Amino acid sequence: MRSEKEMFELILRVAKADERIRAVYMNGSRANPLVEKDIYQDYDIVFVVSETQSFLSDKTWITIFGEVAVMQEPDSNDFGWGKDCDFSKSYGWLILFKDGNRIDLRIMTKEKAIENYLSDSLTVPLLDKDHILHQIPQASDTGYWIKIPTIQMYDGCCNEFWWCLNNVAKGIKRDQIPYALRMYSGVVHIQLDIMVEWYIAMNHGFSVSTGMWGKYYKKYLPSELYEKYLKTYSGGNPENLWNAVFSACDLFRFLALQVSGHLGYTYCVQDDENMIKYITSIKYADH
After folding, report:
1. Mean pLDDT across the chain, nearest whole number?
2. Are 42 and 28 in contact (CB under 8 A)?
3. Residue 79: its pLDDT value, please?
4. Domain parsing of the chain, residue ranges
């Protein structure tokens, strides 16, 4: 695998030699000083270009970065939804190379790039041929900090968590495991994750990011809570799914009470107790 130094040298060498590329900047985890570096981090790179058409008319230029193993072009791969993208302003490639390195590369025209450049706190300028990139603060994760929830957000999270458990329980009882798993992981567990994030943020003055989809839960949760969190995941075995559901209930209750106490909100004790009774009765019902 090529080293970080080799990859940055290659990226900048390509940009400097191509007159169509006027500036380069980086986003993502490599721009975050708080993230521990490892060899699996992507290179999230933006090329500010004079135009996009020539890059798109012959995409073989991508191979200058190395031998491609697998590539995705998310802007053109809309899975049939008819997503409207203006390729004349922006286009991206997600590229995994055979040596294990990955570059998430996006080309943007100057106008589009400046808008993006100023909107992301995790931005590091790498090259600016025409002095078009504005001075910005040192890259930080401040733009990704978890915000204090309003009472409506808190109440909505609690209600969604407890209400949708009735669907999970019925799905397990009917042996409709794909449905139950989807309802649990895609609806209920998302609310647990939101509460986990509020709990973590609460204990860090709402000045922290937990990364995409809980990347840093292990870093920020006390070890005993993290172990409880892991028990909220399940495979397809019905009994294991029941265990995960009740583990999620116990953890959600603890976290939600902590958050409500900190913010001066009221926890929905009645919803909690009534839904626990309901799903317990379903689990042990004879029919």
Report:
1. 94
2. yes
3. 56
4. 4-143, 146-284
Query: In 24-120, where does DSSP find H-type helix?
Result: 53-57, 110-117
CATH number for the domain whose boundaries are 146-284? 1.20.120.330
Residue type, 157: C
In DSSP terms, 106 is beta-bridged to 46, 92
Nearest to 125 by CA among 42, 19, 38, 15: 15
- The answer as to CATH 1.10.287.3240 being correct for domain 4-143 is no
172-202 pLDDT, tens digit per residue, is 999 999 999 999 999 999 999 999 999 999 9
**DSSP labels for 253-265?**
HHHHHHHHHHHT-
CB distance 140 to 33 below 8 Å: yes
Task: Output the pLDDT for position 119.
Answer: 87
Give CA separation, 1 vs 40, 63, 222, 287, in Å: 10, 16, 35, 58
Low pLDDT (below 50) residues in the chain: 82
Sequence letter at residue 52: T
Tokens (6 digits) for 141: 């994760």
Asked if residues 24 and 13 have their Cβ atoms less than 8 Å apart, the reply is no
Contact 146, 198 (CB under 8 A): yes
**Closest-CA residue to 95 (of 64, 122, 117):** 64
| Structure-token match 């072009």, residue found | 73
Q: What is the CA radius of gyration of the chain?
A: 24
**173, β-bridge pairs:** none
Q: Please, are residues 69 and 34 in contact by the beta-carbon 8 Å criterion? A: no
SS3 192: helix
Tens-digit pLDDT profile for residues 258-281: 999 999 999 999 999 999 999 999
